[in-house]
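queue> pop job 88
queue> type: inverse folding (structure -> sequence)
queue> payload:
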């Protein structure tokens, strides 16, 4: 049985695993994301030791997904400066000529949730992680989306809530963007504390639901997904999901008349089935596809 190496590369940690072609996980390790000098040799050694036949990489971004670009497989303009313009895919391959697939962490997670998780059977679906940052993977007609760059839904611009004490948000690039208003650190900045420590009925979660619902509305109106999967640390707060569903219905104002929204929103905006390994399993699927197409 051929083996597929999978990497979910995150800004804080790297998760690596080896799978058989049919999806049995053989070994998984994780390590903090330090500088490439420290982290890369350990990752290369892991995949080399397992003699993987293909590699799938799901990376934090922004990344270059253009197959014909000289910097394909690189992390590009990340604020994590040690990894900026870093050719992570080429370095991981370490001179080995094996099939490799490469996508964003959230695109890979979207693929995984469609093929094996909460969005099974969908032709179009969105996976969003709401954690230290916010990112969305968009799956459309059988594949993840990239184009000029790849979706950067975390930075869409939103309308601030009238009661938000910090309506500019905390993104260094944008005024009132989604990530700057609604990622975990934005909640923390708003309450001058830690989002995890707040009671479910803290008023900041109504503000949070308003922002996540604006995101859902914008996704529904542009991408028309058959399912929206919301993952990441902030969604660990179960009470928030119900609030986001309700607020999405309210903001849409009945305009999108699908029963999935008007009646069955509990089945429409859902949490991931593969959390917290949606991205890792997505990396395996991307590697498997590369192997099958080789
Ligand atoms: P990362 O995005 O770095 O992979 P996570 O997805 O685990 O990490 O998200 C971490 C963020 O989620 C932190 O900002 C944390 O405050 C927030 N978070 C975790 N649990 C909760 C919770 N129960 N309620 C609100 N925020 C939470
Ligand atoms: Zn931003």
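queue> result:
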């Amino acid at each position: 049985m051929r083996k597929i190496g999978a990497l979910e590369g995150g800004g804080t940690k790297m998760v690596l695993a080896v799978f058989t072609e049919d999806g049995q996980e053989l070994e998984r390790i994780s390590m903090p994301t330090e500088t490439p000098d420290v982290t890369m040799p350990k990752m290369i050694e892991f995949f080399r030791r397992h003699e993987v036949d293909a590699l799938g990489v799901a990376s934090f971004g922004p990344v270059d997904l253009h197959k014909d670009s000289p910097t394909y497989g690189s992390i590009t303009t990340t604020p994590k400066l040690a990894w900026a313009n870093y050719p992570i895919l080429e370095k991981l391959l370490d001179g080995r000529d094996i099939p490799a697939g490469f996508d964003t962490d959230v695109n890979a997670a979207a693929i995984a949730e469609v093929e094996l998780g909460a969005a099974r059977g969908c032709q179009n679906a969105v996976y969003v992680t709401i954690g230290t940052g916010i990112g969305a993977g968009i799956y459309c007609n059988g594949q993840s989306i990239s184009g000029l760059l790849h979706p950067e839904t975390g930075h869409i611009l939103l309308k601030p809530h009238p009661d938000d004490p910090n309506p500019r948000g905390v993104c260094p690039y944008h005024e009132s963007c989604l990530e700057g208003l609604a990622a975990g650190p934005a909640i923390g900045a708003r309450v001058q504390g830690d989002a995890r420590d707040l009671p479910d009925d803290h008023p900041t979660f109504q503000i949070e639901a308003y922002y996540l619902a604006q995101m859902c509305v914008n996704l529904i109106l542009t991408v028309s997904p058959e399912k929206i999967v919301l993952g990441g640390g902030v969604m660990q707060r179960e009470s928030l999901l119900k609030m986001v569903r309700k607020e999405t219905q309210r903001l849409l104002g009945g305009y999108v008349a699908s029963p999935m929204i008007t009646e069955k929103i509990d089945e429409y905006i859902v949490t991931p089935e593969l959390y917290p390994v949606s991205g890792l399993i997505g990396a395996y699927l991307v590697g498997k596809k590369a192997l099958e197409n080789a």
